[in-house]
Amino acid sequence: MAQSSEKAKMLAGELYCSTDPELVEERRRAQHLLELYNATNADDTAIRAGLLRQLFGAAGDGVEIQPRFACDYGYNIRIGRNAFINYNCVFLDCAPIEIGDDLQMGPAVQLYTVFHPLDRRARLSGLESARPIRIGQAVWICGGAIVLPGVTIGDGSVVGAGSVVTRDLPAGILAVGNPARIIRTVA
User: Fold this and answer.
1) Cα end-to-end span (Å), the chain
2) Is the confidence at residue 45, as pLDDT, over 70?
3) Within 13 Å, how many C-alpha atoms sit on residue 185's CB side?
4) Quick one: average pLDDT of 64-77?
5) Residue 147 and residue 153 in contact, taking contact as beta carbons nearer than 8 Å
6) Which architecture, in CATH terms, is 6-185?
């Protein structure tokens, strides 16, 4: 029976070794594209769009990402139309990150699909795993928020500045705090 590659394990949500040569090379490719993207000037909209299409699994029309942007692989990121992502955002995309149309994202937002074992021996062995993040249509994630692995945020929801989203949020709510808790519904 053939063994799964570390990349296949990563994409399946299993424990995998992130120092596998194939994964290291794919991260280097992403870093090269990010270096080019982050060096563009504000008037280079066509160049930026082309680089995002090379980097991401999918990028809709009207996606605007302010430099500096960082991610692990890029190909696990799918962003719909008319998304605005402010300065210094980090997407650790070891599992899929799916973002609907009309996203507004403040500066320094962090999306983490990856997590490490709690057991010290397993963690020190270099193993990790990842779970997808899904963000619906017309979501606003305010500055400095962190979204943890496996979280889904429903359509039209708002995540307050500095919040840490540890579990799924339904559509049409405002959530704030650490951990983020639902405060009220929003229109």
Assistant:
1) 54
2) yes
3) 3
4) 97
5) yes
6) 3 Solenoid (2.160)
Phi, psi values for residue 50, rounded to 5° = -65, -40
Give the rounded distance of the alpha carbon of 68 from its chain centre: 14
Q: Which amino acid is at 172?
A: G
Q: What is the pLDDT of residues 86-137, one digit of tens each?
A: 999 999 999 999 999 999 999 999 999 999 999 999 888 889 999 999 999 9
The owner of tokens 């249509």 is 137
90 Cβ contact partners less than 8 Å away, ≥ 6 residues apart: 69, 70, 71, 109, 110, 111
0.70 exceeded by pTM: yes
What is the residue extent of each domain of the chain? 6-185
Residues serving a catalytic function are 116
